[in-house]
Specification:
Bound molecules: tetrahydrodeoxyuridine
Largest sheet: 5 strands, mixed
Radius of gyration: 14 Å
Structural class: alpha+beta
Oligomer: single chain
Strand content: 25-35%
Number of helices: 4
Length: about 140
């Protein structure tokens, strides 16, 4: 596991919380914010973006990943995720299955860290492998 300091974790959570203000959620009202730490230290924010046709909705985590990858980043250390109905956090917001698979494309399951906020001044840090064991990834196609 690549270690992160408590300060680094708190900075990522704060950035993810700032992204809640940009979540576009007229249909579900469920707002999610993410902050993705690239290996070079850059942090990419993301929010969920919904759509009247529903299926094109994009999760906060994928927004952050696609922003980073579209700017040439391919190596990442961690992502912080926060969220809740109407932006009110009542517990951990775990990444959906599709986002886990997108993380798997670019991140080492053993070392990439997924940070969730569990309550005021309380967070959990798990590896991608915790969220997506026995996964299928790019090396399967080699
Ligand atoms: N959502 C995310 O942004 N990330 C997740 O990992 C869980 C779900 C969003 C998608 C949709 O806009 C809303 O939350 C309700 O599913």
């Amino acid at each position: 596991m690549t270690e992160l300091t408590g300060t680094e974790v708190e900075k990522l959570i704060r950035k993810a919380e700032e992204m809640l203000a940009f979540a576009y959620t007229p249909y579900s009202g469920f707002k999610v914010g993410a902050a993705l730490l690239a290996a070079d230290g850059t942090v990419y924010g993301g929010c969920n973006i919904e759509n009247a046709s529903f299926t094109p909705a994009n999760c906060a985590e994928r927004t952050a990943f696609f922003k980073a990858v579209s700017e040439g980043k391919r190596a990442f250390r961690a992502i912080a995720i926060v969220g809740g109905k109407n932006g009110i956090q009542t517990g951990e917001c775990a990444p959906c299955g599709v986002c886990r698979q997108v993380m798997r494309e670019f991140c080492d399951p053993d070392t990439f860290l997924v940070i969730t906020k569990a309550g005021p001044d309380d967070y959990r840090v798990r590896t991608l492998k915790d969220y997506l064991p026995l996964s299928f990834g790019p090396e399967n196609l080699l």
